[in-house]
Amino acid sequence: MRARWMLVVVMALAAALVPPPASGESGPVTPLPPVTDTDGFAGTCYSFYPDPFGQVPGRPFLPLMLQAGSRWDRFDFSWLQLEPREGEWNFAAQDQLVSDLRAAGMNILGIFLWTPNWAATGNCTPTPESLRLDLSPSLRHAPVLHPAVTPMDGIPPCMTTPPRGLYEPWNDWMTPGDPFVNTWGRFVYTVAYRYRDSVKHWEVWNEPDLSWFWTGTSTDYARLLKVAYQAVKAACPDCTVLFGGIAYYEKPNFYRWVLNTLKNDPEASANNYFFDAMAVHLYHRSSSIYDVTQVIRSGMREFVPDRPIWLTETGSPVWDDEAVISPTVPYIWSATMDEAAAYVIQSYANARAAGIARYFYFRAHDDYCDKNRDGDCRDEGIDYGMGELFGLVRDDRTLRPAYVAFQVATTYLVSPTMVTSVNYSGGVRRVTFWGTPRGKISVLWNNVPTTTVFSYPATLPTATLVDRWGVTRTITPSNGVYTLTLPGATANNGTSPSDYIIGGEPYLVIETDTVPPTATVRSVTVSRPPTVTVSWEGADDAAGIWLYDVQVREGAGAWATWLTLTTTTTGTYPVPRTGTWCFRARAWDRVGNRGDWSPEVCAAVTLTRTLHLTVDAVFGDEDGDGVQGADEPVLTATLRLLDPAGADAVSPTVGTSWEFTATLPVGEYVLEAVPEGWPSTPPGWLPRWLPVAVAPGMDHQEVRLTVGLRPHRASVYLPMVRR
Fold it and tell me: Class of 419-511 per CATH?
């Protein structure tokens, strides 16, 4: 949710309004067929809105987003609307909204947001009633209350302040008459419990690193997140809690401050550090989706274990849409409609390459601020909404090029086995989706302003080239490469004219091979223990074998990874102990299809090692100190080395010393020394048993002992009664 949302918006681009024609000035945009087969990676924000002009019933943007391939909607569960006065709940519109979205097949990411006046803290500017939109159930939607009144004389809006009772225990609202109530904990629990069967994902606040949305400290936000996590998990244990989407650039260390606070909480490690996923908001520059995400992931790992990162807002505002605004004027961080379409595909590809778990485009439609279309966004009580044009579609439901680009992404760039990326020295960026339902797909674009001819190595004899309009054509390689002409970047409304924030036209190169390869473990051979030599092979009928994964397990235990993405077809596995060891392999072909695991091949392995045992002397250890004294006699004894089953591991001997070399299974043995004449009556000497461990290893194991037998001083006889 952009900080530019204002009830009163004054911008040069809104100077005059032209009534929107049926399509953009560049002609109508033709959508691709509705996207029915996608992987749920992509969503949009605020697709549930009614027609801004009141001419079409229902939720006209919702089916458009579903047809675009969006499977998520992200929007507010606004506290100051749901509980406008303490204890007075207003769920009718939100209930209808949640029901409509779930019936349409849309997943929901809800945002817990805004402090009502009655729960606000500190000296703050109350949220005026005039900011509250009509909440009557007849609207059949939950309207978004746009932030926020402009702070007056440095006094923050009450809706941005930490809620009353935030530092009380999260559930300190169950005791009647208790004046110290955690109002936030009660709100979050009530909402999460009410929608526990329909809404499984919750984002805690929006852009808490911006004072536009949150005027508390980072410590206050850490507490807000902790209380929300505890309340959600109590209401819905299988729900996912997201750190509030960070805007990053204004306070790039804010999330680190919060995580440092959470890390030092004694309850944190037992509660997943009070969040299940990190959320980020990155706009305008398509490369930031990859680069900044890596920085945030690295920073997060300094404080807490790694977890998923969701891109819950991204987008690029357009300046050249004469169907909505006139005159059209470029401004910083804005793009043309064509550049914004390129941004969709580039940001989507970079998100996948960065390991982002979910992608939300901001936004479904413009919600443009001039609601009465009089060329002025300042008509109080009438005009509200966005001062920039972010929508995939306009408010009149006509499509922008970005809509079709979104369809291209959600149609083709789905369900990869893995994603890789490369930046070439000439300015070309390649993100490759391996093993998709259509094969190997590389997204290519040019980040510099000059046209670049790029040679792309071919895997198959032909490929399909797809542009951002979804237009396809077949291409063939020459001398093993596809030659592609990549247009230069044009989006230079960044910090300087030489700063290109979006690359040039992106293209998809699809090499179609959807049949996975097969793999076989050829042999498992017990080589010199403790090693096992394993060999495997694969077969593929098109792209050819690329890589292998190999797993191992002991007996009927769990499979464990041994080798990952290896090009080798043989390996030596160091078996740690005697037992049955099994191996299986799977193959990857050169377009990223990953085959099934092969049947296992097992081998019984008995680990052995050569033992050189020396018994220097057997003596009577009169004083029991283990050291043969001058007056302690040498004794003759029967010496045996017993295996774990109690049998002789080597032939016994009789003598005062013993030395032998033998190759034995690894394990625990016992050296038995029985003195000559045993059993005897006192005085005499007692037998002795000493442990000898044959440990795993490749070299000879040396064991040297002296055996001191203890004196036999007395015998006790116990009567035995037979019945």
Answer: mainly beta
